[in-house]
Amino acid sequence: MSKRTIYNITTTDKDIIDSISEEFHGGLTFLNELPASKNIVTVFGSARTEEDSATYKSVVDLTNFISTNGYSILTGGGPGLMEAANKGAFDADGSSIGINVVLPHEQESNKYVKSSFICDYLFTRKVFLIKDSEAFIFVEGGFGTLDELFEILTLISVDYLNDVPIILYGKEFWTGLMKWIEEFLLGRKYIDKELFENMFILDKKEEVLDKLKEIKK
To answer: What are the b/e assignments for 164-174, b being 16+ CB within 10 Å?
Structure first.
């Protein structure tokens, strides 16, 4: 079966089930065999941010600092801010992990990934990015990044996921969204106030590290 025609009308249900099963087995085995499988922090962010942008450079600086302090960096393995996060860990000689997916603009892992696994399904990729992480850091991004943020929040809200800290890095980017969530979703009781207890909008790498260290206490 062609990897690019998973949902083609000629694909049988058995083909899809077998493909998903094989991918889950491979991805979970990959995670279990990682040389640095503890202190994993997953960084989510845009695939479109250019290398010469201030945001790219700030993410490199952030993950370099975190990695130097003993944390493994896991990303979606693609370009943009995922690449920036992996570069920070790579330059610190730390653990730089990527879980990529076959998309038109993400055919292979970025050059700063040391340990990689490539998925055919977006939903399996999300499972692998979430499963072993001690914290989630969200930097700037578009619909994909927002989708990942809201899926994690949904999983926490229905008790499918422990209250893993969610760090929104960059007050300018995230404050407006969080105000809207608080005013309209919380204000109209569509969500519970407890959901905010493990969400933090931070601007400095030192603040991020302090928050990560609190997890261990």
So the answer is: bbbbbbbeeeb
> Which of 71, 130, 79 has the alpha carbon at shortest distance from 101?
79
**3-state SS of the chain?**
CCHHHCCCCCCCHHHHHHHHHHHHHHHHHHHHCCCCCCCEEEEECCCCCCCCCHHHHHHHHHHHHHHHCCCEEEECCCCCHHHHHHHHHHHCCCCEEEEEECECCECCCCCCCCEEEEECCHHHHHHHHHHCCCEEEECCCCHHHHHHHHHHHHHHHCCCCCCCCEEEECHHHHHHHHHHHHHHHHCCCCCCHHHHCCEEEECCHHHHHHHHHHHCC
Cα 171 from Cα 181, distance rounded (Å)? 15
Dihedral angle sign, alpha carbons of residues 67, 164, 136, 20: positive
| pTM score of the predicted model | 0.93
| Residue whose tokens read 């105000």 | 179
Amino acid making up residue 82? M
pLDDT at residue number 108: 80
Q: Are 73 and 43 in contact (CB under 8 A)?
A: yes
Q: What is the mean pLDDT of each run of 10 residues along the chain (217 residues)?
A: 51 88 96 85 97 98 97 97 98 97 78 95 96 96 97 95 94 97 97 93 97 82
